[in-house]
Amino acid sequence: MNEHQQQLDRSAALAARDSRVLWHPCTQMKDHETLPPIAIKRGSGVWLEDFDGKRYLDAISSWWVNLFGHANPRINAALHDQLHLLEHVIFAGFTHEPAVRLSEQLVALTPPGLTRCFFADNGSAAVEVAIKMSFHYWRNHGKPGKTRFITLANSYHGETLGALAVGNVDLYKSLYKPLLMEVLTAPSPDCYFCSPGESWEQHSVKMFERMERMLEDHADQVAAVIVEPLVQCAGGMRMYHAAYLARLREACNRHGVHLIADEIAVGFGRTGTMFACEQAGISPDFMCLSKGLTGGYLPLSVVVTTDDVYAAFYDDYAKLTAFLHSHSYTGNPLACAAALATLDIFATESIIERNRTTAAYLGRRSRELANHPHVTEVRQCGMIVAIEFAKDKRSREPYPWTERRGRRIYGHALAEGVLLRPIGDVVYFMPPYTVNEAEIDLMVRIAAEGIELATCD
Ligand SMILES: *Cc1c(COP(=O)(O)O)cnc(C)c1O
Prior knowledge:
It is built from 14 helices and 16 strands. By secondary structure, the chain is of the alpha/beta class. Strands 4-12-11-10-7-5-6 form a 7-stranded mixed β-sheet, sandwiched between helices. The mean pLDDT is 97.
């Protein structure tokens, strides 16, 4: 048996073994009868390689986590060094250099006023931390009636019960409603629904009126407003104008309500600035970060908050004001080392600046698809580009969801060596920042073919 055949058998054998013992995330496992999971052997840069030697361009950064390519030499080296020093230590009562350095750097990088880092180990957990801290802050300030949260329609904040409750994507949420706390839901400032002739700014500002009224009516019961700044990613890469965030910050101040910025997906340069909040010139009370934080290497998340919030918990133990929340892997040193190497790449390689050129090219090539008879919008925010298609271009009437047309694009792209994972009828690109022009050309060409295939009947 030759080596190639051995590798193929290894791949098939892995898929078969997988089907006996595994249960994959966000997947109807029966779908694997027609499209089994692909066993990946190695990654390098923007490419993933299977056991057949076939390569896949990771156009979605492996679920939005990867920033500087797979098997990045600088992050690899940092992990290697850390591994020889300390893999993990309890983070209550103990500390270590990677967590201290990372916190110093995050405090310096995040918008002014964010001065304290509380670590957790995934995005949903960070959202839970921010929700609990905000509620607890008001309680410590003698306002126990502030127990509610305002969220945006079509928002996503994770899958654990608190995070799911403040999210608003029906596909993930509706079934579990009996288990979830009730929230107040304001309409989204999403500019897909702009009227003809209306600018993004005008639309988002108009949509703010309902949020303002909700704050007016409920401020005494509301602990915080939680938003995904600029892009509602899991909600279909829907985008809105920074003017909404500026108004929201001002209104939250006026009404005595916290603002939680969930930058888990949009942080670390995705929207063209290091953090999306920068484009509105605002500082939230809580900023949740994860995903790109470690360059896509290891699970780590952090809530960065203010002196004011920190001070509300700081007292004698017997007052019982402390935040008694923990995760076993809080502040894991390996994850912190990967994050430090990631921030080092940002600092030494002018990434935000260089991304402007990449984003301009990505946008220019993607907009060529706007003329397609079923494409309703090509939208962009920094390094995120989304192409939405519908049954009727003019009325934007969508295809019935049961037709699963996006899945045809997924299948076609995989066959052609590109990992695209449409959200419903939205194809999007969120590539690692190391993607080059030829790779962008490939992504766009395969997406165009996929959209043609998905809309030709
Ligand atoms: C992915 C995501 C989360 C959840 O993060 P996990 O690590 O998957 O739990 C929360 N908020 C936003 C905006 C996200 O995109």
